[in-house]
Each structure stands twice: as C-alpha cells, then as structure tokens.
Design brief:
alpha+beta; disordered N terminus; seven-stranded mixed barrel; globular
C-alpha cells in the first residue's frame, strides 16, 4: 500500500447499526479425511504489486457453534464458541440475515441475527497461520475455532483474498469472499484481552466472510483452490483497513464489485454525512 497510507489506527471505534465500526477511532462418494493435528484510483492507492493466484491450500478444521451465555449483548446467547467436527458438513446459502437460516453451515448456530450471518456472511474463514502469529503475540495457544470461524485454513491467503474471487473447496463447494470480520464486544469478552477490539482492528488480520455461490459439503482436509480473481485486485485486508481507518478512501471502496449490498449502503450513508 503506497506511502503507508493505511498505517493509521482506529482510536475509538464505535459500532454502527450494522455492527460495523465507524472510524472516528464414505458419504456421497467421498473418501473420509483424517482430521489434521471503484476500482481505478482505489487500486492504485491500495494494491501493492501484482496479486498472484496462490497454490492449493486446505481446510484444517470445520467448526460449528457450541452455544454459551453472552452477558454483553441483549440476546443472552452467542455462537462464537465453535469447535471442530469430524464429519461432512453441508453448506448452502442461508438467505437474508434476519429471516433466513442465518449460518451457511448446517448444524451451526447464530443468535445475534441482526449483526451476523445471512448470505453475505454465510461462512467465516480464518487462517491457521494468523492464529500462529497471534499465539506469539499473546503468549498463549489458540485453538481452531476460537475466533468463531467456520473454516480454519492452511496455505490460503485469507486476508489477501480479493473481494469477489471464487474459492473451490472439495469437489463442489464454491465460496466468495465479501469483507473482513469486524470485531465486537462479544469477541473481546471471549478473548479476555484488554482493548482487544482495537488491537484486532489495528493488526489487520480480520479473516474473511464468504457467500455461498454453489452449495456442497466440506470436511477437514478438503483442498481450497482460488478459481479466479476480479481485475480490481482489492483484497480483504486492504478494504478492511480503508474502511476502518481511512475514511477518505470510502468513495473508491463503495465502487468495488462484490461488496455486500448492506455494506455498500452503509458506506454511501457515511459519505453523505461527511
């Protein structure tokens, strides 16, 4: 990113009504797996070098919610606590956020349906490599699923994924990155780290929400291949940083293909208020 423009931080992030921080601050013929131990100007200012198609990565674990009490939100229960499962899990588009099936994974649960789930947040992916980075920083082990992701990956540049690209997982499932995960008070309570929302935002390793383009099944060990990438080349990490800490770039961000419609509307509203 040119000139270090995205190096500024959010000092006092405040959630808006979308749960997004305003900047101020032997099934189906498949072999079983063994569980493993606006483009133009915006791109010129945010993209660094040529984005290359990565090699084939894999799903380390598939994680489903184990509900627990959540005293920091009115719904009283959270599905952020996700644990790996050793079986095929069906994945399909869940439908609209508040009236659909909420999660894209059959058997997963989402309780704060105003801010989480729906077609544009059907699946959440986080990279094992980023967990390993956080483990060093936090000086403690971090288990797959701790951040609330459905898919823990390895060898997949999750934060470097281009918004709107296509991931082929296993033989049939096709997912599409839409935006980064926005940290909230539930996440901060789960981690038990002071100022976690600000720290997570500043370090810009958000992981990626994905929509389901073609339904299928997923199991730990499945390969993950990037089938194609849009020409705009704006990645999850670049868009996340621009949205969270660089409001002057919002006019370009709002034009990027593949953004969720409700996020695009939020961006437009913020631009009108400026």
């Amino acid at each position: 990113m040119a000139g270090g423009n995205l190096g500024s931080r959010v000092d006092n992030p405040v959630p808006d009504h979308h749960g997004i921080l305003d900047s101020p601050d032997t099934d189906h013929g498949r072999r079983p797996h063994t569980p493993p131990d606006g483009a133009g100007k915006f791109v010129r200012r945010l993209a660094v070098g040529t984005v290359r198609l990565p090699g084939v990565g894999r799903v380390v674990s598939v994680n489903l919610a184990v509900p627990e009490a959540n005293p920091v939100k009115g719904v009283g229960v959270t599905g952020i606590n996700k644990r790996p499962v050793d079986r095929l899990v069906a994945v399909r588009a869940p439908g609209p956020k508040t009236i659909g099936l909420h999660s894209g994974l059959v058997g997963d649960q989402i309780f704060d349906i105003e801010h989480h789930g729906g077609d544009d947040q059907a699946v959440y992916a986080y990279a094992r490599e980023d967990y390993d980075w956080w483990q060093v920083r936090l000086s403690r082990p971090l288990a797959d699923g701790l951040f609330g992701e459905n898919l823990t990956t390895e060898g997949v540049d999750v934060n470097g994924a281009v918004i709107g690209e296509r991931w082929l997982i296993g033989p049939r499932l096709v997912l599409q990155p839409t935006f980064g995960r926005i940290p909230c008070v539930t996440f901060q309570r789960k981690m038990g780290e002071p100022r976690w929302v600000k720290t997570f935002t500043r370090m810009n390793r958000p992981g990626a929400y994905l929509r389901v383009l073609e339904p299928g099944e997923v199991w730990a060990g499945d390969p993950v291949t990037v089938a194609d990438r849009p020409a705009h080349a704006v990645t999850i990490a670049q868009a996340f940083r621009a949205y969270m800490t660089e409001p002057r770039l919002l006019a370009e961000l709002v034009e990027i293909d593949g953004l969720p419609d409700d996020l695009r509307q939020t961006l437009a509203e913020r631009l009108r208020r400026r």
